[in-house]
Amino acid sequence: MGTAYLDHASTTPMLPEAIEAMTAQLRQVGNPSSLHAAGRRARRVVEESRETIACALGARPSEVVFTAGGTEADNLAVKGLFWARRRPRVLLSAVEHHAVLDPAHWLADHHGAVVELLEVDDRGRVHPETLRAAIERDPGDVALVSVMWANNEVGTVQPVRVLAAIAHEHGIPFHTDAVQAVGQLPVSFAESGVDAMTVSGHKVGGPIGVGALLLARGVDPVPVLHGGGQERDIRSGTLDAPAIAGFAAAVEAAVKHQDATAERLTALRDDLIERVRRVVPDVILNGDPDNRLPGNAHFSFPGCEGDALLMLLDAKGVECSTGSACSAGVAQPSHVLLAMGQDGARARGSLRFSFGHTSTEEDVDRVADVIPHVVERARRAGLT
Amino acid sequence: MSGGVDSAVAAARIAEAGHDVTGVHLALSSNPRSYRTGARGCCTLEDARDARRAADVIGIPFYVWDMAERFHRDVVEDFVSEYAAGRTPNPCLRCNEKIKFEAVLDRALALGFDAVATGHHARLAGGVLRRSVDEAKDQSYVLGVLTREQLSHAIFPLGDSTKAEVRAEAGRRGLTVADKPDSHDICFIADGDTRAFLADRLGASEGPIVDALTGQVVGTHQGAYGFTIGQRKGLRIDRPATDGRPRYVLSVEPVSNTVTVGPRTSLEVRDIVGERPVWNGPAGEPYEPIACSVQLRAHGEVYGCRAQLSGGELHIALDRPAAGVAAGQGAVLYEGDAVIGSATIASAV
């Protein structure tokens, strides 16, 4: 009995081309900053990877700053732009990932930032008027705006291009966390008009521990990591040529197949939603029914606790997520669902299934088979 | 799985015996840092990590169950209100009764599990709870409050082993908690200062310390709840007793906020009344007096006695006097090493 891995939004298996590109480099020596032949060889791998990623994401190679993952890129964008701009207000959507929220709150606690969370509607969308109103309370005081491309929990896609344009009317830099979007939605850095964009390796079939912050020309955050100044003096640390090669191969493949992937995942996802609804009639689909990530199905099961559902599904070979943040493993109600106006009980009874490149119809069958029994059990255990 | 050595070995043993085991760590504080003091307690972030690591080594799934609200209500608040009422509660006993074998057990049964296994040092066979073979580590006393129904869904895999054997086995199994110190004291009082913990919650209120022999006020205190029957230290009586002998707390009267002290001989009691009796042993309920033995506090002495249920109370007549019997503690009855019943001590004379 295999398992149905339906947690691709937390991490997705590496693509064969990424494994190949990465392992080829793991056999080589060379620090990309070294001047000798081995160093030049490694540098070439890094620069070709940079070009590949830039090309796939509609950016210039010089706009790609490699980091050790999405969290670092988000921290660099939020802290770095705040410090560079020397203005107090940081405007974020209320449904941002913790990698954006927490650096902002830390800036508020330690560096005098004033964090303003932009309200979302019950589908999790930021309305352009909300951003406009927030900016116009005092446009000269805003350091940056950050709104994610697509939400990691409920999959809602934000009107990033429109929001970025509003920020630009006032000359305010706009950052977006596009970690969940790349490979599932068409993503073009240039066309979106954003100034900074976070991308992660392992969400698109590359390795864990590598990512990038795309930074438009002239957008220069203050560094978070100081040292050798390898990446435009904005980010220091020896470049991880093997991981970067795997990352580039994954981005290239994911973007090349994005159309077909989106179509296939949407079909699987819609099938899952329909079949879960059939066997659990009172299930609630969270997020935006239309503008959502193709691979995302996020439910609330009334009367159940998400943790109990997750445990029971795990025992039946279905791997999914409650999508909530943990401290010492204790689930807190999701800030995303609370921001969407849900009560604590509904927020705690939620579960995210996320599809990816290895997902099949058998995965959907497995969920549909076990979910009625699992929900009944979890309901009996109730909300403790 | 607390993160300690006992629950880790208990889990390993039942998993090895072929049960389908899931490890559960109880989060007992909504702010885990607030209970954090190194390896003292059983509910710190570090303990949660240790428990998770043990589950990894054993190869079982592991989850944290959030029992913070229930624990606060049923154990911590109960602890405070019992002291406020002049009694001396045993929170471990209450935790077994209300958390581990009620909240956790109910949830586990609803989710499709058959039983809750813990690392308590006690034996359970054929529904009969017995003392551990390791008398010094025996925990049957704090399990004596469980009903037959609760015991029917309990497994205690460690009862036939000594603590030393459990530690050695943990080492052999590659469980890194093998050398972790035993937990002591009350897990939710991080620094071990019970009186300060109570003062924080109940406030200070000066009252008299009265000598039972003379009726004289011999000192003052900052809150009667800070005293336990049989207590000798920390009374700070400012004059010598008329008989020249040390004084012990004889009674704690919360309404008048009075602590009465007297000589050790006045502490001695022979007749105990217990409330909320539980009859969980192999024998039938003793509506006629039966001869058995009783333990009146954790790791306390065992007394021969005659016990009888009547009017919803358990009446215990000790064969010889006991000193320092505090209301609120458990009276657990044994026949040999088998638990036959228990009650919460309401009064003793």
UniProtKB/TrEMBL annotation, chain A:
Coiled coil: none annotated. The keyword Iron applies. It is an enzyme of class 2 (transferase). Keywords: Iron, Iron-sulfur, Metal-binding, Pyridoxal phosphate, Transferase. It comes from the Bacteria. Its cofactor is pyridoxal 5'-phosphate. It catalyses: (sulfur carrier)-H + L-cysteine = (sulfur carrier)-SH + L-alanine. The keyword Signal does not apply. Residues 5-367 form the Aminotransferase class V domain. Its EC number is 2.8.1.7. PANTHER family: CYSTEINE DESULFURASE (PTHR11601:SF34), CYSTEINE DESULFURYLASE FAMILY MEMBER (PTHR11601). Belongs to the class-V pyridoxal-phosphate-dependent aminotransferase family. NifS/IscS subfamily. This is cysteine desulfurase. It comes from Microbispora corallina.
